[in-house]
Amino acid sequence: MTSSYTIPGVRESELARLAEDIAFTARPGDLIALSGELGAGKTTLARAIIHALGCDEHEEIPSPTFTLVQTYATRRMPAAHFDLYRLNAASEIDELGLDLALKQGIALIEWPERAGGMLPASRLEILIEDENGGSAAEDRATRRVSLAGQGDWAPRLSRLVAMRELLTSNGMESEACRLSYLQGDASVRRYARLARQGDGAILMDWARQPDGPAIRNGLPYSRIAHLAEDVRPFVAVAAALRAAGLSVPQIYAQDLGQGFLLIEDLSDRVFAVEVRTGASDQAQLWRAATEALAALSAVAPPPTLPVGDGSMHRLPAYDHGAMSIEVELLLDWYLPALHGSAVPDDARADFLSLWSTVFDRLAVMPAGWVLRDYHSPNLLWLPEREGIARVGVIDFQDAMRGPAAYDLVSLLQDARVDVAPELEAAVFDHYCAAVTARQTGFDRDAFAFAYAALGAQRNTKILGIFARLAKRDGKPAYLRHIPRLWRYLEHDLEHPELAGLKCWYDRYFAAAARSRALS
After folding, report:
1. Residue-wise burial string across 463-496, b where 16 or more C-beta atoms lie within 10 A, e elsewhere
2. What residues make up the domain containing 417?
3. 194 with 179: CB under 8 angstroms?
4. Rounded Cα distance, 298 and 302, in Å
5. Does residue 101 sit in the same domain as residue 188?
6. Taking the model in full, what pTM does it have?
7. Is residue 260 within 8 Å of 210, Cβ to Cβ?
8. For residue range 308-340, what is the model confidence (pLDDT) as tens digits?
9. How far is the CA of 201 from the CAs of 23, 194, 253, 386, in angstroms?
């Protein structure tokens, strides 16, 4: 499978902008083959790609003509720059460490034709050709850059082309606009900041994900848990939240088919960073975020939302199936990692039975918005705005209809930032007072039960997710948050109506076990 794309009239200064696009698309295991005559710009493009991957901007990137290979530890991934011009035989490429380079990161190869058939079949081939016969002044000299995607690079090149077309149509593909990768979290989505004089935007890259294996009733985890699988829910929910007065990114342009959005840049004043650096007062931030939730509680979530292209997005209910599959992550990932064995069948049955009773009670409560990840990594401080608009919200594509207490507990029992018990209690009271002032019939006792139950449910889920990230995905950094999660969970289980669950957790997670590192 092959796809191709040609860009005529490329000046040397514009190669850096193309390099940013290629680097944004790159992922570990990629091989980029650079062809062209001497002086065509192969090394210039390779250097620019390495810099765009996050190499120190002051680090010299020499041509590997004599060393044959140079390696760099960029912020995104390791990069290896090969020059095969002096290769005596194609078989020598094995001695240069290409296989290791591809296992660890990305490989850029100049003069790839000298490798014969020794290169992997899946690769991005880039041919740079002079369009001026070498006679034009350097600042006016242009090149024709031809890209060909081989193997799994074929569909990825098609998406790269779609991305460039979206950016070009919105004036974001010129050399005056810089694209920089934004380091993500545990999400499949990727982001880049586009900056040009006077304004900018954020590029969201979210290709539709294939369904995982069926695990229950013929459905994968994502369907059972009602997780968004492409950009369409983001577009639909964003419009509804903006109409409710919340600060969510305005969508400037979109390619729903390929999964690209060009959205408003709400700044980088993330709550978590504001607290860590002391730039803002945590109590002020959390109270402001609570006021936004209180305002949203007065807006009924509709069952469907328009996407904008004539289609509709169904806003799912946070139902028994979704809540249950989430808490089961504790049994499937955390408990085996902690004890070294699978959970006994009778323990699983008791666990699910106890939670089922809780879910049944939550199901009959009034349904409000559940944004799902309303916590410090996804909230931005916008003090120049007024009222609830001071809180920017950037992650809501998984929104559902369910108990409104879920988002409050997401905020006040933040998995990544300590929220002191005194602050949690004060802001909880602040929320209840704000909702009481907005609507009649608010049942604080019922809300307090939902808060404790959903806090226990959410923290149980996150324990499982962090264990899965560590064991399956090789991301152990999340494990440092586990003590905080247990503090929250222990507090939630103190609610009198969760006594049965508390006994279960006490039996299978004794105090010593809760502080033990995962194996």
Report:
1. bbbbbbbbbeeeeeebbebbebbbbbbbbbbebe
2. 268-302+311-514
3. yes
4. 13
5. no
6. 0.93
7. no
8. 889 999 999 999 999 999 999 999 999 999 999
9. 18, 5, 10, 22
